[in-house]
Give the backbone structure.
Amino acid sequence: MLKKMIKHIFIYISLLICIGCNNNIVGTSGICDDCVLELSIPELTMDESNYYHLEFNEDYIQTFAKLEAYVGIGYAYLGWESDTEHCVEMWNHTECSDVVNPVSYSGSDGIANQMIGVYQEHIGDTINVYCGYYDNYGEQYLNTIRIIIDE
């Protein structure tokens, strides 16, 4: 009888350790009321088709613009990507890099900044910049901003 009771106690304790007492075994659930993803480039003008225009500065090799993402929450990890690369060939090896840096974090104000750097070869191109992040509940937020590189 005592052996059986010890066996049952061991099974219950093992189950509590492995499964736990939480009703949600997948993770925390909920809705982030403050989470959004709004992209902008405050220093550039936007046309009626919602395209930003970046004028390439011929005095330099590369022209930069600061992208801004408002996420509504502090310290969110954002991923950035574009459909445009800059490639350099050196010693029979081609190295390509995205014109947008790949990651940033939002500050306590819910704003994240990122840089885009374009070269002369991009004049006349329309660059799509993609941004996204996950909130604390696993909900994904995605947005796109489009930039035309003018001469």
The two ends are 88 Å apart (CA to CA).
